[in-house]
Specification:
The chain is built from twelve helices and 21 strands. It is α/β, with parallel strands linked by helices and 472 residues long. It is elongated.
């Protein structure tokens, strides 16, 4: 029989302290009934001898030491999962908000997931197509990888997130081990999209984008708005990842999880930490921020013996565009690279404003080449990187010395850098480029340069993909 406690001692923000408790556990759910009879849900945030600190999912207004009572439910926060979740929209606590019927679950899963034995992990090594050239060709996303996007206030990361969610595909190669000209055959795929602490305008934008493009049919959306409780914001990404684990490891689907905005999530952690009067770490964030972020990011990956996979794209806004801020800094330690958005490209009207040079996918070499994309992918990628880097150096030199002081070769690299930004980086919001088109566009740009400067592509690939097509 569950006990009811009338020993609420104090309330601090979303936290309620209850004394005289026994036999409680960390993360256990709690029902608190106010004096007016209203029932509100919370979870145990801290359990020590005779005292429980409860974090409320709803407002603590009306909860008081007199007349309120708490009942510990003996279970953790769980999510009912089913294939019927595809095509549906939920709030941060997993409740439908799309006017559809309640989900009849196949099973209920703890949102904190189960620890995965590192030995059971399979290495990420298959190509993931996003339809965006600067990602697919230059900073390739690999199935099972976690590749964050580092943005800044006012930059179009919401548009980019929606575009990736619409266009992302897991595709197969032809019998010769290369991607087919049409882009390959799509495999069993789903998107789990979680928005945390977003405005009503952003929430409506995401919902409308998924619905009008038909992407909603293969997607599960979790929307947590800025006026929702901070505790719900902390639960939202775990709801999304629990859904992804069910679809990937029990239904053999390849799942792309997009989490935006992780900065709002970290702000919620900081708010709760301050309410608990914990000793703050860097910039006021809790000292366990690294550990907490790792509990989210490390739920991506592949498992030996399982067909499905979970690939993560967390999106975060860097305060003051500071890449050394604790959130991007710690994220960079845990994830396998980053996609960086540039403010100067945004000011030039270039979308997506991906800054290619500081961006990095540490696993890109594992997802390209014969059997994954195409034989020339590695060479084209390296040559584009090298040429663009030199072109930007020449551009800076031209500002100091003037273009008249540049050599003919330097002028060609300058032209290459300008064309690269205008035609390769820049892409329409609804333009879906498959990897074959991205590689072809890369070869077209390399024609600007003298062939003697193409030192990172093989001669046979120049003959096959550039010289032969010029002859035609």
């Amino acid at each position: 029989m569950q006990k009811e406690y009338k020993t609420i001692k104090s309330i601090a923000g979303p936290l309620v302290m209850i004394e005289g408790v026994e036999g409680i556990k960390y993360e256990e759910l709690v029902e608190i009934t106010t004096a007016s009879g209203e029932v509100r849900l919370g979870k145990v945030l801290e359990a020590r001898e005779g005292v429980a600190v409860v974090q409320m999912f709803e407002s603590t207004q009306g909860v008081g030491a007199h007349g309120s009572k708490a009942r510990f439910l003996g279970k953790t926060l769980q999510l009912g999962v089913s294939l019927d979740m595809l095509g549906r929209i939920f709030d941060g606590r997993g409740r439908p908000i799309d006017d559809g019927a309640e989900i009849i679950p196949d099973k209920k899963l703890d949102i904190n997931g189960n620890p995965l034995n590192p030995y059971a992990r399979d290495y990420p090594n298959d190509f993931y197509q996003t339809g965006i050239s600067t990602i697919d060709c230059m900073n390739t996303l690999v199935r099972g990888q976690k590749l964050p996007i580092f943005s800044g206030a006012g930059l179009p990361h919401a548009r980019l997130a929606a575009q990736i969610a619409r266009q992302a595909k897991v595709i197969s190669v032809d019998n010769e081990g290369n991607m087919a000209e049409g882009g390959g055959k799509e495999e069993n795929f789903a998107v789990v999209f979680a928005a945390m602490g977003v405005t009503f305008e952003e929430a409506e934008y995401f919902t409308n984008e998924f619905k009008k493009t038909g992407a909603i049919e293969r997607s599960v959306l979790y929307i947590n708005t800025a006026d929702d409780p901070v505790v719900e914001r902390i639960a939202t990404p775990r709801m999304a990842l629990t859904t992804a684990e069910y679809l990937a490891f029990e239904k053999d689907m390849h799942v792309l999880v997009i989490l935006t905005d992780l900065t709002n999530y970290c702000e919620a952690l900081r708010e709760v930490s301050a309410a608990r009067k914990e000793v703050p770490g860097r910039r006021g964030y809790p000292g366990y921020l690294y550990t907490d972020l790792a509990t989210l990011y490390e739920r991506a990956g592949r498992v030996k013996g399982k067909k499905g996979s979970i690939t993560q794209i967390p999106i975060l806004t860097m305060p003051e565009d500071d890449i050394t801020h604790p959130i991007p800094d710690l994220t960079g330690y845990i994830t396998e690279g980053q996609i960086v958005l540039a403010r100067d490209l945004h000011k030039q009207g270039i979308y997506p404003n991906i800054n290619v040079l500081p961006s990095l996918s540490r696993l890109k070499d594992k997802g390209i080449g014969v059997g994954k994309t195409r034989e020339d992918h590695s060479g084209v990628m390296n040559q584009l990187f090298a040429a663009y880097a030199r072109g930007k150096e020449v551009r800076e030199l031209a500002v100091i010395l003037g273009e008249a002081a540049l050599s003919d070769t330097d002028l060609k690299f300058l032209k290459f850098a300008n064309e690269f930004e205008k035609t390769y980086v820049k892409q329409e919001e609804y333009e879906d480029r498959n990897i074959i088109k991205s590689l072809t566009m890369g070869w077209e740009l390399l024609k600007i340069l003298p062939e003697t400067e193409l030192k990172r592509v093989k001669a046979e690939h120049i003959e096959k993909y550039m010289t032969a097509k010029q002859a035609k």
